[in-house]
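Aim 2 progress update. The chain analyzed this quarter is reproduced below.
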Amino acid sequence: MRNVVVYLKNRKMKPKLASWETIKKEYPDRFVLLENPVFDPTPYLKEAILLYKHKDQKKVVEKIIELKPYYSTIAYTGAFTKTALRPAEPEMVFVQGGTFMMGATPELGDDFLDIEKPVHKVTLSDFYIGKYEITQAQWKAVMGDNPSHIKGENLPVERVSWDKVQVFIQILNTLTGKLYRLPTEAEWEFAARGGNKSKKYKYSGSNVLSDVSWYMGNSGKRSHPVGTKSPNELDIYDMSGNVWEWCNDRYGEYSSNSKTNPQGPVSGSYRVCRGGSWNSDAYNKRVSYRDFNWPDRCYYNLGFRLACSSKQVCQGQALSRQEQSQATPSF
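Predicted structure tokens:
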């Protein structure tokens, strides 16, 4: 398939459609590459250019993100990254690797779903996971917008699809030089259980849900600032309730086989969500409870937290403001 480029050298230059070969030859330092389109993108790109002429950067970025499902790679520079501020990086908690039984274990009670069975042994390497859910302020620092339904800088960001979360991660990694990602489902459950410090609580950090969770019974029909309930054994907050959290894995049924660092199925239509939210009952706040959703859907009770492999979290230096303006994130 052919490549299509939108070139955005700076605000004074008229954006134009051109071939990848021409732009790379003439202007190797600044370009937007839309690689391997599966349909003719020209009408969409013209719309993006029209928005750009009107200096509506937010809508241009939204249009480029909207095109994401049709391309294997999208990169952008120029006007988009020039105004980027250094984002507030998430506070991470170290989780020492270990082995645990994943799924609806006996101490969690008998109100489990079939998809939480069979219980199976999982071994994980060391990793880091976010101490808090990503906030609206953190999202806005990276993406420049706030899609959330319930507004508040320290509230968890929501109404973000799995696909848009991938865009956030790619840009954050470019700006920071780090390698953040979503947690795997196994990492999420291990951390929610308290890792190697687990006291086998039903919910993340307690058997008393109201101590650790914002849920239907105490939320007042809204999300709450992150970290305002008690943490779990690893000093991680809000893994039961507040907002659902995306995991990296595609959804698939469990098997009884032991696994090491499982990544989930290699194919499937859905991505895993965990943790329950402020507008649901107690049963889905259990640390083994699973749900799933389409990766392009967003909801006012669904957000995320980040993870990172232990050797990666300290790799790289945060980029300078000048380097940020020259960065070319790809996703």
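The CA atoms of residues 281 and 319 lie 43 Å apart. The chain has two domains: 4-83, 92-309. These observations will guide the mutagenesis experiments scheduled for the next reporting period.
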